[in-house]
Each structure stands twice: as C-alpha cells, then as structure tokens.
C-alpha cells in the first residue's frame, strides 16, 4: 500500500511540476544568448536525494532521458561528498552528458544538514570553443574538435565559486559574456528550485516530502506499466535513413524493433549502422530519451515527469553504433539522429497503435550557424534553430510551422536576428504544396533566407530529409524534400544537407525544410477541407485536382461536387501505391 494518500501526492506532484516550470521561466528571463533565450534550447528538472528525477519543466523533451544518466555518473564520481552550497558542472558526453554544447548545472538541496533533493538545469550554449564557431559542425570527426570538455567538477564549494573553472571557460570560448551569462542563468534556475523545495519541506516536513517523492516515482511506473499492458503484445520493426554521415558519406541506417510483452516495452536498435565519422553520433542517454518520449506520446494517460517512466522500458543500443557512440566519436550534431530515431520509433509504434501515431514531420530542427567578426573585430556566433512542422495525424492535419513533436523550440524573431547580428532575413514563411497528401494533410514546411551584410563568416548547416522524404502513414503521401542554396555572385550553389563552408558579405543562404507526411488516403479528404486549403494558399488548384481529386472553379474556388465525384472514381481505379516500409 502507498504510504502517501492520493490527495497529498497530487498536491506535491503539481507543486514540483510548477517549481520546475518556475525554474524554466527564471532561466529563460535571465539568459543571454539567442539559442537559450529565443530558441528555448534548455531544460530544468528536480531530483530526489538519490538523483532520481521527480519533475521536469515544460522544456526540451529529449533532455528527459539525460538526467538519470548524468546523476548516476555524478554519484559515481563524488559519492556522498556533497555539502550545502555545492554546485556541480558537466558537459562531457562520455561522462553522462549528451554533447559538448549542453552544460549540466546541478545543485544539491539540503534541509537541516541532510540532502533531500537536487535542482538541475541543462542548456545548449552558444559556443564552447573547438574547431568552429558554435562548437557544432557535422564534419567534426572526433570529440577533441568540438570544444572544451568538462567532466564532473565542483563549480561552487559551500557557496564559494571556483574562479579557476570560470577563468578556464572564459579563455576557451569565443563569446565568453554569452557563455558565462547563460551559466549564471542556469545557476539562478537552480536557486529557484532550491527555494521551492524548501517551501514544500517547510509545509509538509522532510519525512513526508521524501515519502512523496518516492511514491511519485512508483506511481508513474504503475501508470506506464498499466498503459503498456493495454497495448497488443508483439514485435514490429521500422527502418529509416539520414541523408548523410555528416562528412559527405553515404546514408545512415536507423533501425528499431519495438516489442511489447505484458507491461514492458523493449526498443532494440540492433541493425542500426555503426558510429560514423561525422558529428551525428548519439549517446546512449539521448537514445533512451527518444524511446521514453515516443512511448509517452503514444500514451493516453497523463503521467508525471519522473524517473518511473523509464522502469518499464528496456533500450538495446549496440556500443559503437550511431545510437551509442564510444570514444572518440564526435556528437555535437547528434540532434538530427535523435529526430530520426523518433521517426523510426513512431513508425514501429504505428503498427501497434495505428490510431494514435502521426506521420513523419520535417525530420527535425535545422541548425544554421554563422560565425565571424564584426567590423570592430568583436566575435559573434549567430545560431539559428529553425523549427518546422508535423506530419498528418489520425484525426487531423499536421501542424504548419510548429516545432517537431520531439522538441519544444522556437525560431529567432526576425527583428532579434537583424538587431543583434550582421544578417538580414529576406524571406520567412510557409511553402505551398509542401505537406504530404492524405485524408489529413501533412504540415507545410518553412522556408527562410539570410543575407550576410558584412565581412566573411563561417557557415555550418545541419539539415536532412532531402533524399529520404518524411513518410506518410495509412496511405498518406510523403512530404516534400528539403534544400539548401547558397546564392553567390558567380551563381547559385546547391549545398548538401550537412556542410561546413563559408560565405561572404552580400551572399544569401536559402533553406527550405521538408514538409510533413500525410495520413490516410488523399481521396477520402473532405473536399471542403481541400477548398479551404486552396483559399488559404496552402494547396494549389493543380494539387487539389491531381493529389486529392477535387475539381474547383478557378475563379470562385467553389467545389464542383459532381466533377469531384467522377474524378475520384477514376483515380480510385488506379493501382494503389504501396507503402515501402
């Protein structure tokens, strides 16, 4: 029997969730860089005294699985050697981190001399040194090129900062004011978390708080197991590809077999390609986070964000594969691999739960990093995280221009970009006819275009889904592919999906993301929904006719019902296109 009554547990659960969100707000409001403040690439969480997560803010979902791995390695290094006022820092992917740009700040929380919890903040930093501005490039080939590696260190000792660590970071990054400012924002978030925990302990007492935290984790596990137990038993495999290995090499295969047996779920990535030369390799913690996210997305039950989510899940990721990198593999651009793992997990789950899973989205956020020096020789790093679109869903269209379900992120406002960096945004909007056709249309993709206004700059791009299009489900069509074009005075150059190069003043980079895949037979789409899309310039008259079999008046945009019925009859007699997966 649970030692905590359900009402108290619910109150504490919501208080912890609110505290994690308050931490998130504090970090957002005090951050310096655009990647944190505008792109929202950070997360906050709270853990119990043993380092088990008991709450997470409404932030980056793929950070969810990183916290248990990071806390485990913290205890392995420091054990119980923690005191009030201590703060720890980490970014090493091979010591519990995710990739070099993500820094963990962890603050143990004490009450009357006894440790009762931890406050944790994680943020993607604008620059941590390394070979190229932004510390991220798909063509890095080993971790030593990616920037300053920080193993678990004590950043504060009983309230006093270790100035040597701060000095070391300042000396190794291109924009120290931004990097140190964001670290201090993370510290502020952890302080907010500590204050919230103290308020809870003062209200309920330390014994009740500790019991609530433990009970909350067990409660989450029970909910997850009950949900999985309601799914049909069986194994299903799905395969998808990334266009490149990051250095111009061949496509990279991601494979998963999802097995449901009773109240447990296993995700086996055996069959995935070995780790690659480029910087798109993922850590095991990141892979575990993907699995947990996808399972949670398929669940109907609302569950707390706690470590109990992971107990019914088993993740098999062969060492030395692109989903479980080993030294000295590079991983700074591993996000794209996380998005593809999300697609294969959803693809496999769609065979178990076809009425709950959406088609593939844009393939993940596009990263564009432009780094150089201003006229006054001060360095800048413009880090654009371009959020895209969703695939069609079993009961509605995909969202247009909304960040991938595996992320919570935002595009940098045009005014912010142009006000702080030597760039001009020439174009920003949705692309007509880019969503995959289906009973429920795939979301439209985003296009954006930047002109460099002065000097010469390094340019790094991480994109995907040009050659391997976002898949549709249940007869839906694929979304359109992505493209990168660098417009130079001597002529336009079509760039690979992943590249490190340079650009000069006056040159313009155009990027179009992939569109979301469609869901269901396009000939079953409501003709009025097609007409509405045509009127909103989301679908052309030509696509309405050729993809959806809807005949419309070109002047009034009214549906010709009889013409539509006859056209759809003819189209339905054609040989159906078989799904390739």
Give the tags.
five-stranded antiparallel beta sheet; 20 strands; 12 helices; seven-stranded antiparallel beta sheet; 581 residues; alpha+beta
Question: What does this molecule look like?
Answer:
- The chain has 581 residues and is of the alpha+beta class.
- The protein has a 7-stranded antiparallel beta sheet. The protein has a 5-stranded antiparallel beta sheet with strand order 14-15-20-17-18, covered by helices on one side. A 4-stranded mixed beta sheet has the order 8-9-10-11.
- The chain has 3 domains: 6-222, no CATH class; 358-520, no CATH class; 526-572, no CATH class.
- It is built from 12 helices and 20 strands.
- Residues 577-581 have low confidence and may be disordered.
- The protein has helices at 6-30, 34-37, 66-78, 163-172, 176-204, 206-229, 284-298, 335-352, 414-420, 527-535, 541-546, 561-572; strands at 42-48, 53-56, 87-90, 102-111, 114-124, 153-157, 160-161, 234-242, 252-261, 264-268, 313-316, 366-373, 379-386, 423-430, 446-452, 456-462, 483-488, 491-495, 498-504, 508-512.
- Helix 1 (6-30) packs antiparallel against helix 5 (176-204), helix 5 crosses helix 6 and helix 7 (284-298) packs parallel to helix 8 (335-352).
């Amino acid at each position: 029997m649970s030692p905590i009554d359900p009402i108290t547990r619910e109150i504490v659960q919501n208080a912890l969730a609110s505290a994690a969100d308050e931490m998130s707000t504090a970090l957002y409001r005090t951050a310096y860089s655009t990647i944190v403040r505008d792109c929202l690439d950070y997360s906050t969480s709270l853990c119990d005294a043993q380092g088990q997560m008991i709450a997470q803010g409404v932030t980056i979902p793929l950070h969810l699985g990183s916290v248990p791995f990071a806390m485990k390695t913290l205890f392995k290094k420091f054990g119980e050697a923690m005191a009030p006022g201590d703060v720890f820092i980490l970014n090493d992917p091979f010591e519990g981190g995710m990739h070099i740009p993500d820094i963990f700040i962890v603050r143990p929380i004490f009450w009357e001399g006894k440790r009762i919890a931890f406050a944790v903040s994680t943020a993607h930093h604008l620059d941590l040194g390394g070979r190229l501005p932004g510390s991220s490039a798909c063509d890095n080939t080993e971790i030593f090129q990616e920037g300053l590696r920080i193993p678990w260190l004590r950043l504060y000792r009983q309230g006093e900062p270790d100035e040597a660590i701060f000095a070391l970071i300042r000396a190794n990054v291109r924009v120290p004011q931004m990097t140190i400012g964001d670290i201090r924002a993370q510290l502020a978030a952890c302080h907010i978390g500590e204050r919230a925990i103290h308020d809870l302990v003062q209200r309920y007492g330390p014994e009740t708080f500790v019991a609530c935290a433990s009970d909350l984790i067990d409660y989450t596990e029970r909910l997850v197991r009950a949900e999985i137990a309601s799914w049909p038993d069986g194994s299903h495999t799905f395969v998808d590809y990334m266009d490149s290995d990051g250095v111009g090499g061949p496509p990279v295969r991601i494979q998963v077999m999802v097995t449901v047996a009773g109240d447990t779920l296993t995700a086996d990535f055996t069959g995935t390609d070995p780790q690659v030369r480029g910087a798109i390799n993922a850590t095991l913690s990141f892979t575990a986070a993907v699995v947990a996210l996808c399972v949670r997305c398929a669940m109907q039950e609302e569950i707390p964000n706690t470590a109990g989510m992971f107990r019914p899940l088993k993740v098999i990721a062969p060492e030395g594969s692109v989903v479980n990198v080993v030294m000295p593999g590079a991983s700074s651009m591993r996000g794209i691999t996380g998005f593809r793992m999300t697609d294969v997990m959803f693809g496999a789950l769609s065979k178990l739960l076809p009425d709950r899973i959406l088609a593939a989205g844009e393939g993940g956020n596009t990263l564009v990093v432009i780094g150089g020096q201003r006229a006054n020789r001060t360095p800048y790093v413009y880090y654009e995280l371009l959020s895209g679109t969703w695939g069609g869903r079993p009961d509605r269209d995909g969202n247009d221009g909304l960040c991938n379900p595996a992320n919570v992120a935002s595009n940098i406002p045009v005014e912010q970009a142009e006000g702080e960096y030597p760039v001009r945004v020439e174009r920003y909007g949705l692309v007509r006819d880019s969503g995959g056709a289906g009973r429920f249309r795939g979301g439209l993709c985003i296009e954006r275009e930047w002109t460099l206004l002065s000097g010469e700059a390094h340019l790094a791009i991480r994109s995907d889904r040009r050659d391997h299009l976002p898949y549709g489900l249940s007869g839906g069509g694929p979304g359109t592919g992505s493209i990168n074009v660098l417009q130079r005075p001597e002529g336009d150059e079509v760039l690979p999906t992943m590249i490190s190069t340079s650009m000069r003043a006056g040159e313009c980079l155009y990027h179009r993301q992939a569109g979301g895949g469609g869901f269901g037979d396009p000939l079953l789409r409501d003709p009025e929904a097609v007409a509405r899309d045509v009127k909103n310039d989301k679908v052309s008259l030509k696509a309405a006719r050729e993809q959806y079999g809807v005949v419309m008046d070109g002047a009034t945009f009214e549906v010709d019902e009889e013409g539509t019925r006859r056209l759809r009859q003819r189209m339905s007699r054609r040989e159906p296109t078989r799904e390739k997966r």
